[in-house]
């Protein structure tokens, strides 16, 4: 099967809403906790550090799980877990220990999405196509991150709070979990379609 550039762009476009949901947490969480809720930013730093440390330790375990069960269910679990954790990050406010627990569990869901995407891409298109396809996915992913941060800021300004932004992020992540389960992991061949080919 030959993948046209439009199909490649559509494949990569799945990363846009995911990045739009994820990056704003790091951009806007300090303002939510520090500015809106008056929390000590040092505590927020500890919470985010705990999330990233959990991420670092869990990544290899998710890889081993994906080798046993496949990348699709692991990826779906990661996105569904992120939706729950994002809700927790917004709803848990006054209990520092509970916030730390949410962050550590959240770190488990920060891990693995890109490695699962790489694994699925290699399974579906073969290892020689991974660079081209992931290049498009990363481009769209970073664009989504920038758009998501801006959208979260605009929602904050227009509504006076972060509830709408977190609700949108949770909905995008829950949808991503469902879409991940529907990925057809059948083998394909990817080649750039040259202009004038077949003419």
The assigned structural class equals mainly alpha
Low-confidence stretches: 192-199
What spatial form do the alpha-carbon principal axes imply?
globular
For the sheet with most strands, the description reads:
none
Query: What's the helical proportion of residues?
Result: over 70%
The helix/strand series, from N terminus to C terminus, equals HHHHHHHH
CATH structural class: Mainly Alpha
| Radius of gyration, CA atoms, in whole angstroms | 18 Å
Full CATH superfamily name: MFS general substrate transporter like domains
CATH architecture: Up-down Bundle
User: Mean of residue pLDDT?
Assistant: 76
How many strand segments? Answer: 0
């Amino acid at each position: 099967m030959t993948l046209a550039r439009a199909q490649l762009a559509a494949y990569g476009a799945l990363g846009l809403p995911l990045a739009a949901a994820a990056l704003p947490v790091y951009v806007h969480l300090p303002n939510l906790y520090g500015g809106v809720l008056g929390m000590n930013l040092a505590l927020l730093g500890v919470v985010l550090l705990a999330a990233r440390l959990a991420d670092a330790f869990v990544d290899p375990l998710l890889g081993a799980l994906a080798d046993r069960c496949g990348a699709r269910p692991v990826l779906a679990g990661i996105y569904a877990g992120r939706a729950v954790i994002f809700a927790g990050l917004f709803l848990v406010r006054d209990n520092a220990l509970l916030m730390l627990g949410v962050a550590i569990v959240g770190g488990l869901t920060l891990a693995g999405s890109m490695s699962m995407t790489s694994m699925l891409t290699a399974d579906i298109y073969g290892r020689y196509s991974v660079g081209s396809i992931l290049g498009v996915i990363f481009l769209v992913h970073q664009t989504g991150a920038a758009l998501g941060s801006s959208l979260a800021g605009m929602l904050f300004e227009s509504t006076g709070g972060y509830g709408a932004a977190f609700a949108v992020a949770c909905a995008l992540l829950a949808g991503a979990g469902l879409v991940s389960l529907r990925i057809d992991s059948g083998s394909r061949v990817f080649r750039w379609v040259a202009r004038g080919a077949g003419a």
